[in-house]
């Protein structure tokens, strides 16, 4: 099949207006969010139905054309950027944006992959339900990408990752056939649970086109607090107290180093430290659920009071209303933006067992400071589930390019420490292009062999997002 014939088939499948080949139209979609990766592509195709996705993938399969799925383009590891060969067709999912069904009695919602996460949260709320997946990019990111990367977010402590929000999937496979696994069941022991092959696979096994999502009752009560603690060990002790006092109600427990708070207040409008004095570490804790009778707040207050008496908390502020709680969260989320104002930033999205977080930080911090004198670590993240963004801001006055040139060497050192503490180098952002080598470096050979076997079985010609997550064969 010639190039012209392939484009003709793509146009026939989705309509010529939804096949983009103009370089200016393609350019914004050929670079990742962090501007680390750039590629080229034959075309960017925007199918509007599952059948159209299947027709596009079928045409690509018959011509040996690589396919790169692309959602909201908020990824941080280059997973949605084609390579430089120019041979791939990008399949964008933004037109797959329908909510097919909401079933409040079954606590499920059937949605298409291009639905914006925030819209799904609002749809669930309109039906008196909660969809708990929450990310900083929720106003832009699409649920298909959230599932393809097994996104984490702010509520993993209570509700789990994106994987835990899914009951069923619809997937277009590498040959263009469609697997309809849109089951709304909570119990199904009939063989392998195939949906989990595609969640976290980053489009390397097939393209997720729709999903059945779990919904939950809307919490009747939310209590939020912001506290200063002397060290990470104390933060961990506070977490345990809160969980013991409130049970499964603890939904978020965020840890922030002092430097991150200071940078946020310095650079981001509206970011304000609610505490009267500076503390080495701060925590943001939120509990949700209850009966709306104030019992949940009382339980949180009791846990924090006990922690204060034990010396684990130096100061604490409880949010008195939703606006104050939002201000706490704005400060936490501002840390990400604030780092951009300070020059280059080398980032790590890692997780270790919750109990190992203090030891990891105690080892990793001096290690990077020894590698780059004057480097400014800005660790923050989800202490409740062990996921930290161990980010490093360049030394003051340093050259950003020279600093960022150390990215791989610093990553390798930090990841060695993560591995030594039983952790993972990819906690919620995915593998993409950025971490392929590191995944192969740390996973046992038997596990890598299984991953490659799955890739070969479902994508024998290596056309689905090739060069991401895992290669079909071991690299020499």
UniProtKB/TrEMBL annotation:
UniProt record, GO biological process? respiratory electron transport chain
Domain FAD-binding PCMH-type positions:
37-218
Q: Name one Pfam family in it.
A: FAD-oxidase_C
Q: Which cofactor does it need?
A: FAD
Quote the InterPro entries the UniProt record gives: FAD-bd_oxidored_4_C, FAD-bd_PCMH, FAD-bd_PCMH-like_sf, FAD-bd_PCMH_sub1, FAD-bd_PCMH_sub2, FAD-linked_Oxase-like_C, FAD-oxidored/transferase_4, Oxid_FAD_bind_N
Arranged from A to Z, the UniProt key words for this protein are: FAD, Flavoprotein
Region forming the signal peptide = none
Which superkingdom does the taxonomy of this entry point to? Bacteria
Keyword Secreted found: no
GO molecular function list? catalytic activity; FAD binding
- Record SUPFAM superfamilies: FAD-binding/transporter-associated domain-like, FAD-linked oxidases, C-terminal domain
The similarity comment for this entry is: Belongs to the FAD-binding oxidoreductase/transferase type 4 family.
Read off the PANTHER family from this record.
BLL6224 PROTEIN, D-2-HYDROXYGLUTARATE DEHYDROGENASE, MITOCHONDRIAL
Name of protein? 4-phosphoerythronate dehydrogenase (FAD-dependent)
The organism of origin for this protein: Limimonas halophila
């Amino acid at each position: 099949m010639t190039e012209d014939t392939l484009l003709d088939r793509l146009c026939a499948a989705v309509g010529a207006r939804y096949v983009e080949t103009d370089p200016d139209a393609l350019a914004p979609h050929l670079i990742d969010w962090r501007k680390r990766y750039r590629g080229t592509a034959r075309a960017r195709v925007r199918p509007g139905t599952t059948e159209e996705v299947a027709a596009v993938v079928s045409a690509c399969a018959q011509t040996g054309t690589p396919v790169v799925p692309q959602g909201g383009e908020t990824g941080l590891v280059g997973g949605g950027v084609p390579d430089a060969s120019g041979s791939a067709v990008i399949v964008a999912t933004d037109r797959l944006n329908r909510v097919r069904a909401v079933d409040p009695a079954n606590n499920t919602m059937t949605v298409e992959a291009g639905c914006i996460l925030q819209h799904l949260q609002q749809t669930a709320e309109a039906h008196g339900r909660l969809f708990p997946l929450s990310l900083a990019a929720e106003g832009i990111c699409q649920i298909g990408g959230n599932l393809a990367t097994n996104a984490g977010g702010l509520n993993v402590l209570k509700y789990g990752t994106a994987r835990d929000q899914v009951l069923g999937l619809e997937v277009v496979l590498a040959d263009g056939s469609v697997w309809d696994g849109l089951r709304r069941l909570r119990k199904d022991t009939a063989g392998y649970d195939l949906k989990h092959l595609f969640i976290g696979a980053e489009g390397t096994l097939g393209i997720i086109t729709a999903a059945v999502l779990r919904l939950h009752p809307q919490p009747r009560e939310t209590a939020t607090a912001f506290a200063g603690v002397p060290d990470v060990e104390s933060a961990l002790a506070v977490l345990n107290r809160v969980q013991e006092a409130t049970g499964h109600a603890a939904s978020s427990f965020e840890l922030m180093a002092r430097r991150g708070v200071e940078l946020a207040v310095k650079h981001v409008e509206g970011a304000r430290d609610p505490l009267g004095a500076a503390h080495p570490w701060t925590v943001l804790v939120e509990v949700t659920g209850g009966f709306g009778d104030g019992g949940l707040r009382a339980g949180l207050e009791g846990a924090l009071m006990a922690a204060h008496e034990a010396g684990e908390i130096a100061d604490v502020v409880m949010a008195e209303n939703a606006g104050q709680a939002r201000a706490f969260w704005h400060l936490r989320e501002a840390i990400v933006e604030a780092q951009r104002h300070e020059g280059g930033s080398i980032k790590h999205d890692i997780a270790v067992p919750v109990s190992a977080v203090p030891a990891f930080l105690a080892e990793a911090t001096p290690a990077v400071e020894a590698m780059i004198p004057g480097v400014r670590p800005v660790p923050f993240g989800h202490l409740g589930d062990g996921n930290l963004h161990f980010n490093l801001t360049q030394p003051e006055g340093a050259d950003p390019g020279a600093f960022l040139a150390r990215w791989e060497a610093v990553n390798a050192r930090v990841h060695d420490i993560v591995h030594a503490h039983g952790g993972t180098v990819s906690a919620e952002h995915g593998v993409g292009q950025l971490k392929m080598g590191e995944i192969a470096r740390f996973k046992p050979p038997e596990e890598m062999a299984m991953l490659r076997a799955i890739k070969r079985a479902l994508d024998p010609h290596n056309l689905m997002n090739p060069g991401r997550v895992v290669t079909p064969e071991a690299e020499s």
